[in-house]
Fold this sequence. Notes:
- By secondary structure, the protein is mainly beta.
- The chain is about 10% helix and about 35% strand.
- It is globular.
Amino acid sequence: MVHVTLYSLNTIQGMTKSTKKVAYWPVLVSGAAITALVITGFTQVPEQLPRSPRANYLQYCASCHGENHDRFAARAWVYGNSLNEVSATLKHGRPAIGMPEFGQAMSDTEIRELAEYTIREVAQVPDVIPSSFNVQDTVHSMDLKFILEEVAGGMNIPWGMDFLPDGSMLVADKAGKLYLVKNGKQTEISGVPKVVVRGQGGLMEVAVHPRYKKNKFIYLSFADGPAPDKINTTIVRAMLDKGKLTNIETIFHATPDSNSGVHFGCRMFFDKNGYLFFGIGERGTMQNAQNLTNHSGKMHRIYDDGRIPADNPFVNTAGAMPSIWSYGHRNPQGLYYDRSTGVIWENEHGPKGGDELNIIKKGLNYGWPVVSFGINYNGTIITNDTAQLGMEPPFHTWTPSIAPSSLTRVTSDKYPTWKGDFMSGSLSFEYLERTLMKNNRVVGRERLMPKIGRIRNVVQGPDGFIYISVERVGKVYKLVPVK
């Protein structure tokens, strides 16, 4: 099953225009109602009637926790599940895990009713939720058919994937384990550093050095810090020798350390000159993204041993972190490097609405939180501006948010009708997002494999096949075209 959206040229051009955001209304109305709104205007806003707990849940909670409460992490209540505890969480938020406060969006009565509803419904969610998508079925894209071939399994959240020169695959599991998949056999690699698994943090990306045959270096990004309440993203390099990591050294640790469990980044890639690029989220503190004196909310560029290139854009800026390549990012989740052109593509999570696809350029400011196409999760406005002089506009935005988890571009002859298109996992809606490109424009979208699960990563392997990693089932699949 697929869903397709095609854009007209006027629609595409309209996406890039500078606009002012007056309000963000989640509305489902008929064509006649739209006409009436255009004619009469918003001359008077009627007093809002009390909303049902279900309506408030869908409005404020479902984008993160699923329409049917299916994404409450193993039903583990971090701050307790009594009525008073859940009500307090809803009203005041829990910044350390990225939970916003809803005290301004709902009355105390609505919050208490929502707490009662959530406690009751979460208790009914089974520990293992069957997917409505059957991985045994042939998948019909609008111009290609394929099947899924299981490559690896038995993991928690397979987050990072990369390939060794012999074609074998490395898979990083968020829980802190690293696997080697070779000739159909999956083995765990020993010697992985201890990681902090907190909120969105854990063991994240794995990247293989471009000269691996000579130096045996691989790179890991993960959450770590001097204390449980003082963590941020760390990058280490290590030698892979006979199934074990040795000679581990830290080459980067982001600042500031924080108690927050959100927005760690951290995808990585090596460019054709051997520099290591990676993104760090703003760690739930929006102001970090505009502050050059810290690493958070930035893209970075370093040598493979952690040294700073002398031609980085802020090396000579007083107080600035010299590794910064670009700034004003919220939570970079996908990076794709086009080796033929040298162009860096990035996608990142907006707040509620306004996920972005960007072309990353040296020294530019990408605007967060001064400009954004999204709003707060509780419905309040972050900024009225979607564009501002001196800030780079996004190449493309997604509203509602799809929560892109990764990014690759199809270059393989195995998928001839997909060549040039971008692929990303949608964490919010649990499908594979195909972003159709033509003449360097987004011309449409296709939703592939809806409800397969949260696709955490998508990569194109050296064999030309596309691989996806899927949460919940903890597996890696290969997309194999069929006639």
